[in-house]
Amino acid sequence: MTPELFPTYPVLLVDDEEQTLMSSKIVLKASGITNVQTLSDSRRVLSVLGTERFSVLMLDLSMPHMTGDEILPRVREEHSEIPVIILTGANDLETAVNCMKEGAFDYMVKPVEKSRLTSAVHRAIQFRELTRENQLLKQHILSDELSHSEAFEGILTVSPQMQSIFRYIESIAASMQPVLVTGETGVGKEKMARAIHNASGRAGNFVPINVAGLDDTVFSDTLFGHKRGAFTGAQDARKGLVESASGGTLFLDEIGDLTMMSQVKLLRLLQEREYYPLGSDVAKRSEARIVVATNQDLPSLIRQGTFRKDLFYRLQTHHIHIPPLRDRREDLPVLVEHFVQEAAKALGKKIPTISREMTTLLGVYQFPGNVRELESMVFDAVSKHESKMLSLDVFKQRIFGDKGSQVALPMDEREMAPPVSWGEKLPTLKEISELLIDEALRRTNNNQSIAAQMLGVTQQALSKRLRNRNQDTHNEL
């Protein structure tokens, strides 16, 4: 039997070095990305893209005949649905910026670490799959308007990405097929599951449960219930949550932590829509719509042998990936305002004024805890505030720490993506410091106070450095 390929459409690797193509293909296949094609002649890229569908294009920048610089804008113009990952042997900031401006999905400098390569391609595939789902359902998404906006009142957002997810939810709301909700900790997966239920118009209840840490017996009893006398202490029959959610939605959070035996039982529930209460040999019919969520990488768990591949495919009939807060920073102002009002009400305080600098400050932070972390920061700040203007001290403490160094990423992401990649020629200390200063100012919209904290120096030191630089430039002129 021919094994199923992943992703549905191939990943196309383009490089004039055959050895690079082969090694990249091996790394991707080892990570579960088995549908990979290679191409060494850059002149054929556009014609190949015109005759076959692809999930991702990985494009080398320096090639004979046609360079990646020449191909990228053509691909973005003619095949905008394909995310393009640029590879180059030159660690050139200007080139990277130009590629991102041209619409590249990601940019990596050779040699690329295996984890960095596979992570980038997996993210690009997820992006492509979401795009493809939206294209298949475009007849339901012809308008920017939501038919039932009230279903999403619990989720505050102005993000186009989130609005797209809402429209997708409306298009699948009536379906009884399961929905897989993925996203980092704190992005609001349960809120999204509740929105799915609200949009469905189902008359039954929304019943949530966190399945992390449940052994198989407790999982079965919780979901399916038991007959009287099914086990010691079972003096009365008890219905499970599947029955409680009849005609409604059963939400299973932390699905990646299920035991293998529990996964088998969940798979049967999804496929047959039947289940057996403990102690009973008579099947009951399920009338609950199943929505599951996880912050784990299920394909990775499959490769580790701790999650069933058939269950994964069954669960992602409809897949919703919630972007992290750092990828939708336009939501920061509306979320901060809402949490400030909530905190003031809960703490019995007057609503403080929010400074303009707040959005700039929060914009430099990566928010590993996402919306939940932001809410915690705001409540902490409001609890300590005493003047009319909400102080930024609590936020600066959480973001920069005691020593002024920015908490940028969760540990696992820092390990995958080193902060600096070195080319063959090392820059001078002066060049490095100038690049750091420019990048800090760019990220903070030229706010020297926040930029200085990002760099771990005082504002006076940064201002002096900038004055000296300006003076040197003036003298050269």
What is the number of E strands?
Answer: 14
Number of domains: 3
What would the CATH topology of the largest domain be?
A: Rossmann fold
| Spatial order of strands in the largest sheet | 2-1-3-4-5
Low-confidence stretches at least 5 residues in length (pLDDT < 50)?
407-416
Give the helix level as a range of percent. 40-55%
CATH architecture of the largest domain: 3-Layer(aba) Sandwich
Large-scale geometry: globular
Name the structural class.
alpha/beta
What is the terminal separation in angstroms?
Answer: 72 Å
- pLDDT averaged over residues: 85
**Rg from Cα:** 26 Å
The CATH fourth-level homologous superfamily of the largest domain: P-loop containing nucleotide triphosphate hydrolases
Report the portion of residues in β strands: 5-15%
Largest sheet: 5 strands, parallel
Number of helices: 20
Tell me the name of the CATH class of the largest domain.
Alpha Beta
